[in-house]
Write a structure and sequence with these properties.
333 residues; Quinone Oxidoreductase, Chain A, domain 1; Rossmann fold; seven-stranded mixed beta sheet; six-stranded parallel beta sheet; 12 helices
Length: 333
């Protein structure tokens, strides 16, 4: 099969177009013929070696964390899916590889593709949808009437999270540039802060939840817009001790995570705020919940550009540029 392969870690290192064997199918997996694959900053960070301690992949490695396609084979333990089903998924860590013509995915991580979506639209959903769901529903328990601040509203996670938060009945604030004001308003943002001319810390007060996706300076400022009892959920770090437990990290790594997050956890505690780090996980049942919202018209995919498979490296570079409004997708079939 055709695939894009990372031969070794390196900043902005190009992936190599190669012929690779189709991966062997495990008993609890389906083999998906990939029609489209979402492109995420996570792919670039793994390529650059930023996650080597948490996700110690051994190159050569096929990247890609979002897939939409058709089931072409099912393992003997698979009960929910059959050959010919149109599906989408975020493959589990250490079984990634959607920048290829075929990818095996655990049955428990797969869902039927939402009706009415193209393969490209479906491929744009899993990572950002599951990230928003696990942050706002899982970690935050966001409720009707609460106020949530979602950073970078025109990005992949932001465009999805705004819609999910509005569906849950929250008042939504976000940051973006003036050029993307109409987009985030159309998705449901109530308060929009132009990050080029305004400081969100001066505009927002007594929020219940912040979804942080930016740097450490923004994380610190986010603490100050939360009211007592608020929750700060970060998808950009630093990792906390609970995450170390979740991934069964070594004693040394748990200590590193504890130290990395010590400062923000102490500051949060002094303000009676909860801090949690989220590294999203594959989850087919949550994807089915997301499918229901998409089919009901509560959430729509937002895609900036679709690249041909041959231009996978260009797609990665475009995602890294930070200019994308919504998601970037590679069309494979």
């Amino acid at each position: 099969m055709k695939a894009f392969v990372l031969d070794r870690y390196g900043k902005k290192r190009a992936l190599r177009a190669a012929e690779m064997p189709v991966p062997e199918l495990r008993d609890d997996e389906v083999l998906i013929e990939v029609h489209a694959a979402g492109v995420n900053l996570l792919d670039a960070k793994i390529r650059d070696g930023e996650f080597k301690l948490v996700l110690p992949y051994q190159p050569p490695l096929i990247l890609g964390h979002d897939v939409a396609g058709v089931v072409v084979k099912a393992g003997p333990q698979v009960r929910q899916f059959k050959v010919g089903d149109e599906v989408y998924a975020r493959p589990d860590d250490f079984r990634i590889g959607t920048f290829a013509e075929f990818v095996p995915v655990k049955e428990a991580s797969v869902a039927l593709k939402p009706r009415g979506l193209t393969m490209e639209e479906a491929a744009s959903i899993p990572i950002v949808g599951l990230t928003a769901w696990q942050a706002l529903v899982g970690k935050a328990g966001l409720k009707k009437g609460q106020k949530v601040f979602i950073q970078a509203g025109s990005g992949g996670v932001g465009t999805f999270a705004i819609q999910l938060a509005k569906h849950l009945g929250a008042t939504v604030a976000t940051t973006t540039s003036a050029a993307n004001l109409a987009l985030v308003k159309s998705l449901g943002a109530d308060v929009v802060v132009d990050y080029k001319t305004q400081d969100f810390e001066e505009v927002l007060r007594d929020y219940d939840v912040v979804l942080n996706s930016q740097d450490g300076k923004t994380l610190e400022k986010s603490l100050r817009v939360l009211g007592s009892g608020g929750k700060l959920i970060s998808i950009s770090g630093p990792p906390d001790p609970e995450f170390g437990e979740e991934i069964a990290a070594s004693g040394f790594m748990k200590l590193v995570m504890r130290l990395l997050s010590l400062g923000v956890r102490r500051k949060a505690q002094r303000r009676s705020i909860g801090y949690a780090f989220l590294f999203m996980k594959a989850n087919g049942s949550q994807l089915r919940e997301i499918t229901a919202l998409i089919e009901a018209g509560a959430i729509r995919p937002v895609i900036d550009r679709v690249f041909p498979f041959a231009a996978t490296n260009d797609a990665l570079a475009y995602v890294e540029s930070g200019r994308a409004k919504g998601k970037v997708v590679v069309k494979i079939k």
